[in-house]
UniProtKB/TrEMBL annotation:
Signal peptide: none annotated. The keyword rRNA processing does not apply. One of its GO terms (molecular function) is sequence-specific DNA binding. It comes from the Bacteria. Keywords: DNA-binding, Transcription, Transcription regulation. It comes from Vreelandella alkaliphila. This is LysR family transcriptional regulator. Belongs to the LysR transcriptional regulatory family.
Amino acid sequence: MQNSMPPLSALRAFEATARLGSVTAAADELSVTHGAVSRQLKSLDEHFGVALFAKAGRGLVLTHHGEQLQSGVGEAFSKLRNSCAALKRDVEEAPFTLACPGSLLARWLIPRLDRLNQELPQLKLKVVVSDSELPGQQVDTSATLAFIEPPWPADVEVIELLPEQICPVASPLLAAHIDPAKPESLFANKLLVTASRPQAWPQWASAKGLAQRALEDALQQGQGFAHLYYLIEAAVAGLGIAIAPKLLVEDDLRSGRLVAPWGSIETPARLCLWLPKQTNSRRSEPLAEWLKQALNE
């Protein structure tokens, strides 16, 4: 027994032809060939066992049976078009919500936020502080900007933007009393640490060939801070030597608020834009390109 419901593609060709009165016009609208539409219409005639169109000059008119089918099909496709248009409009008009760790937001993104909004006004960008330790896991966000080490989860799209570099930084007054040729000399000072990046000092010390035991002893005498932002501000105030992503202290290094005489190292982490798989690429791709350009300035 033949199915009562013909293929949707055939009904779509029928609806367009009935509405436009021409196979050629229907083919143009559907971006298919004239022959493809004709074959779809023929398949409908065979499915129902009746002719749905009759020739009228160079065009086509609906038969009685065609009018009967069009009464339901036309309304159905009209509702589909309206629903799709409404959804697309809502998605494109909704703010693009970017989650970002507070330190990265305050020290790098906010100083550039006005230019970003001017150059990408179509995003209607909304920035929020990340409330999840894993980028891409925060709900109700369009994307997350964060440093993290691979491997990446399978349920997110990851756009790598920049390798992470970390460096010890200190106020110019404090750094003046330390020999930059001897990285171990900084252990005689108070080291500033943050719980969010416990691996930073060990990574740097290992890359510089410094004894881990000497580092551990110095860290036991160090000062801890809950957030990286406070850690950097403490270094600016001369409270000790902090270690931080170079990206977050570049403005301070340029202005002379901080110095980094001991150099930086590259870590396995990357600054990435994390996107849920269903994110609209037409909105996320311009943001990714803007971030890449801003990071390379």
